[in-house]
Design a protein that fits this description.
Blueprint lengths: L11 E7 L4 H10 L5 E4 L6 H10 L3 E4 L12 H8 L2 E4 L5 H4 L5 E5 L2 E8 L5 E5 L1 E2 L2 H11 L3 H25 L14 E6 L4 H7 L1 H7 L2 E5 L2 H7 L6 E4 L11 H6 L2 E7 L5 H15 L5 E5 L3 H11 L4 E5 L5 H5 L6 H11 L3 E3 L3 H4 L6 H20 L2 H25 L1
Parallel strand pairs: 1-2, 2-3, 3-4, 9-10, 9-14, 10-11, 11-12, 12-13, 14-15
Antiparallel strand pairs: 1-5, 4-8, 5-6, 6-7
Helix pairs in contact: 2-3, 6-14, 12-14
């Protein structure tokens, strides 16, 4: 946790959580991150998803061996950390990954990372100098990076072409997608992923879900965040995390009518083993998943499943919508995300935009309110006329007579 004790050395002190360089180890470390820990990683152009995971876990600081904003494009992770007030130090050098282990106590002070209890060959305490990224420096670096986006757009084109070659039958015809027992044809579908600002987007679609009763598809931990706000998923799409912590809780999975397991296309070795392990864990829960083998991301698989199974409209919660978000982090699903949105086209509505295009149904209380206002206006108009005044006087006399009669009867 963050500590600033007057009787110890200055700065921010915490235990390190070191993120591995491979994707599987990186995801496992992020899931294991605890409040108050210092996240240490090597990630050129820190992406939004990694930064959001650190913020959600309550990390005290993020230390990057590489450059969090290299200048190739305006990456989003550093800005997210700055907005959340998380201490962020980058460019400390790859040697930090050898000097720091999980649980090592580290201290950050004046742009340097000090490794407690460690020393170099000369006996001096190990420390690494880096660059402090605060809100003002992030804004300046991102502004410069926007001038370098053309090369990154070429990368998008390359990824898109490769994905189209591999997955054109899935993309255009839905080949390989399972047939869920949950009927999607002709119904609106809400696909929930645990992305940036998903909580605000879930609030934005609450009225739509309550009134339209759409099919809810939760993607990985998106199934958990949907359940937390009362939107229990009808379908859960899961990837192969390789450990139990990556799966939604058993109660969430068992409530769903269908569980779809995404197996990476061409997966071998570690990825194939992870898929088999995940299927085995689901089997132990009494669940038989529907498997789809694809290089599309789980999010895009869920969108394509809704699209090709006849959904009338698809609302995306926690999805990547803008060009900067699409390019952020050079995600392996770059081409998948781009082409999936082109294929779905006008059926896909971003949850953030939904309140602007969906006003909701007119409820009974609204109709009753309008009728009451109208009756009161009519009554007021009648009372200002001579006939209305006579009626009012007669009504008052009648009420007074009734009251006298009741009082006499009581006596």
């Amino acid at each position: 946790m963050r500590t600033r004790r007057p009787d110890t050395q200055p700065g921010l002190t915490g235990r390190a959580r070191v993120v591995g360089r491979t994707a599987g180890r990186r995801e496992a470390a992020l899931r294991g991150l605890r409040r108050g820990e210092v996240l240490v990683l090597e990630r050129t152009d820190l992406d939004r998803a990694t930064a959001q995971a650190a913020i959600d876990a309550g990390a005290a600081a993020v230390v990057n061996a590489s450059s969090s904003i290299s200048g190739r494009y305006p990456t989003l992770g550093a800005g997210l950390l700055a907005d959340a007030g998380v201490v962020h130090l980058d460019r400390v050098g790859v040697a930090v990954l050898d000097a720091v282990r999980d649980g090592t106590v580290v201290r950050i002070h004046e742009g340097r990372l000090h490794v407690e209890g460690s020393s170099d060959a000369d006996g001096a305490a190990s420390s690494f100098e880096g660059r402090v990224l605060d809100a003002s420096s992030v804004v300046d670096l991102q502004a410069r990076a926007r001038t370098s986006m053309s090369a990154h757009l070429e990368s998008l084109t390359l990824h898109t072409g490769e994905f189209l070659k591999r997955e054109h039958r899935l993309l255009l015809h839905g080949a390989g997608l399972p047939d869920p027992t949950t009927s999607l044809a002709g119904r609106p579908v809400v696909v929930v992923a645990a992305g940036h600002e998903h909580r605000a987007e879930l609030r934005a679609v609450r009225a739509f879900v309550r009134e339209q009763r759409p099919v809810v598809i939760g993607v990985d931990t998106g199934a958990v965040v949907a359940t937390d706000v009362g939107m229990k998923p009808d379908v859960v799409v899961v990837s192969a995390p390789g450990d139990d912590r990556g799966l939604p809780p058993a109660a969430v999975l068992r409530h769903a009518g269908d569980v779809v397991l995404v197996e990476p296309r061409g997966g071998s070795g570690g990825s194939g083993t992870a898929t088999a392990d995940t299927a085995d864990r689901l089997a132990r829960l009494g669940l038989t998943p529907l498997t789809v083998r694809t290089s599309a991301t789980p999010e895009d698989t869920a969108l394509l499943l809704a699209h090709h199974r006849g959904a009338s409209a698809v609302v995306g919660v926690g999805m990547h919508a803008t060009l900067e978000e699409l390019l952020d982090g050079e995600r392996p699903g770059l081409g998948s995300t781009h082409l999936t949105r082109l294929e779905i086209g006008p059926r896909l509505v971003d949850a953030a935009a939904l309140p602007g295009v969906y006003a909701g149904r007119v409820g009974l209380r609204h109709v009753v309110g309008v009728l009451l206002v109208g009756l009161l206006a009519l009554l007021a108009a009648i009372l200002v006329t001579p006939v209305g005044q006579e009626w009012a006087a007669a009504a008052v006399d009648a009420v007074a007579g009734l009251v006298r009669t009741l009082v006499g009867a009581v006596r």
